[in-house]
Amino acid sequence: MQQNVTHILDTPIEYIKGIGPAKGDAIRNDLQIFTLGDLLFTFPFRYVDRTKFHLIKDITIDNDLIQLKGTLLSLEKVKGKNNRARLNGVLKDGSGFIDLVWFQSVQWVEKALEVGKEYIVFGKPTVFSGKKNIAHPEMELVSEVEVQLNKTFEPVYSTTEKLDAKGFDNKARRKILRTIISGLNAQIIAENIPEEMRTKLKLISRLEAIQSIHFPTSENEKELAILRIKFEEIFYFQLRMLMSKVYRKVKYKAIGFEKIGDVFHQLYKSLPYELTNAQKRVIKEIRVDLAKVQQMNRLLQGDVGSGKTVVALLVMAIAIDNGLQACLMAPTEILAQQHYKGISELTVNLPIRVALLTGSIKGKARAEILAALEAGEIHIIIGTHALIEDTVVFKTLGLAVIDEQHRFGVAQRAGLWKKNKEFAPHVLVMTATPIPRTLAMTLYGDLDVSVIDELPPGRKEIKTLHQYESARPRVLEFMHKEIALGRQIYIVYPLIEESEKLDLKNLQDGYENLLQYFPQPHFQISVVHGRMKAADKDFEMARFVKGITQIMVATTVIEVGVNVPNASVMIIENTERFGLSQLHQLRGRVGRGAEQSYCILMTGNKLSKDGRERIKTMVDTNNGFIIAEADLRLRGPGDVQGTQQSGLLDFKLINVSTDRAIVETARHFAQQLLEDDLQLEKPQNLPVRNHLVTLRKKYKDWGRIS
Ligand code: ADP
Ligand code: MG
């Protein structure tokens, strides 16, 4: 039976009655719908309420699709421009008249319609030479519609013009779907949520949900169907995440770091500051993980400047105390260098060797480092993705720390674990992107999470100001004053791929303009953007880091991690074009020294309501989590920084920012299910087991989420 079941949903789209090869091709291309199952599980994006009729007199051009009920008064074929036939009709209801017009299939439409009959007319009104009309309305005889059942909500699917032209428009699609749905049963749409859970959550059955999501007969039915499908979607997502986490723990054995030794204690004692409580707490959390023989996979979240590096270093010290090596991977050469410098300073009096390995370290120097690493003489190696290369061999890698995780793909993370043949190194991923809890649960459901939610004491809060373009002269004056005080300034321009040329020109113009106000040789300005060669970029960054240049004009390439304590002013151009989380990251580049720092948000003189709200959020708070929440609310999850590349959020119905209750409930139930029956062996969990098998077949790229 199971065999047969799979078979029906797997029916290729062109074999469905009413579709055929030509339409099938177009459907595959335009909608990525390949099978009958895909068609069923591609849901309407909205519904038209066909229980309501519009009055002609109430029509405005703002109306979307509407439904009218009236008598077809006349129908007349006329010759339009370039001699093509056109069909003009007039419809009348109790309130007025409206023109109907057809440019295509004129003969056919003319034959199909009958003057004097009452029709239900459906379409989108427009205004042409001051008169209201509807082009190509759908027409149905009232007498016929009234005998049809269930005609209350009509599903609207996203489609393309090409598909409309090929005869697979919404109307045709609905007809095909009605036929398919009438033939469904609980074997074909097998239930995949255990009965008990379904009862507890008052979820309708999967079959009912599929039926009503396409053709609901009431608002309530529609809501119940959507809820059920959203739940299922996120439940299985979380379940798979949790399972891959458990599975990894079983599969990858690690070495338990049993002792805390001299390296850790000496380092701890020699720190130039007292750790914050939050830092102490996360170190404890990590220590517990490290002591286990299961591989640690932990995400360390902490706002910019919260002091993640020292936590990483202390944790690496524990690895060394246990006779193992550690590595720290950063996304850019500059960051790797900064980490190297900082960590070398903190460990100067310790009996350990720290090395740097980046792409630009070549020849003899490189060979020497590689040999020392393999011999186990290097305890901590810091580098870029160069660390993943096959030539990099450790004696015994016990811990891999990855900084600023969203720049690295999952594959790269995995590349590091494979560095140790006998057992898996523990992995600590650090990110400065504050992710709201719900999203973190969803995106990083396979990681354990630690949060540093406190900044080191004594920091001066960054002053954030909003300035309109008209205040530019004052901003320039302010820059002069700050530079005279010996400070450095960042000016950041937005750059997105779609408008890259124009954006680069903006940056270039901005730079040239600055040259007039800050003439050489008295002033020095660096320019850095992603289109430059890496070496040139690094050269300019280095000049700024050393204080040779006073102003750094850049795109967002500087957003991650760079630490120039003397830079105290961050000016952001076209602020309205940045996401909130990104603005927060950028702002975090200043406020690292003892001086009062400023972040100036420049905008055009006109701002949208949304733009004003976002700027107000930035001005009002320095708290990364509050900002991330606001970002999620204002822009939706797809835009929250760090999630774009994840490809993990292409859910059909669930929206992790607005459907939090569902996300959290699903996670809770997924967790409970696994706690109770990890192997899914209990008979009541068979539906789950079966569904996972189907999913696994469907998504062969299962591994991408682990
Ligand atoms: P991030 O979390 O953004 O990577 P860093 O690790 O670069 O932050 O730390 C930012 C700055 O704060 C560094 O200059 C570091 O020396 C300093 N720092 C870290 N922890 C403390 C602390 N507990 N007290 C004072 N300063 C600290
Ligand atoms: Mg950092």
Description:
The protein has 706 residues and is an alpha/beta fold. The chain folds into four domains: 1-51 and 152-189, no CATH class; 53-147, Nucleic acid-binding proteins (OB fold (Dihydrolipoamide Acetyltransferase, E2P), Beta Barrel), CATH 2.40.50.140; 262-291 and 306-431, Rossmann fold, CATH 3.40.50.300; 463-621, Rossmann fold, CATH 3.40.50.300. 41% of the residues lie in helices and 18% in strands. It has 25 helices and 22 strands. The strands form four sheets. It has a seven-stranded mixed β-sheet. It has a seven-stranded parallel β-sheet with strand order 12-13-11-14-15-10-16, sandwiched between helices. A six-stranded parallel β-sheet has the order 17-22-21-18-20-19, with helices on both faces. Strand 6 and strand 7 (131-135) form a beta hairpin. Helix 11 (262-270) runs antiparallel to helix 13 and helix 12 runs parallel beside helix 13. The longest helix is centred in the N-terminal third of the chain and has 33 residues, at 219-251. The radius of gyration is 31 Å and the shape is globular. The model is unreliable at 1-5, 638-648 and 701-706 (pLDDT under 50). It binds adenosine-5'-diphosphate and magnesium ion. Adenosine-5'-diphosphate binds next to helix 13. Residues 273, 275-276, 279, 302, 304-310, 432, 456, 563 line the site of adenosine-5'-diphosphate (ADP).
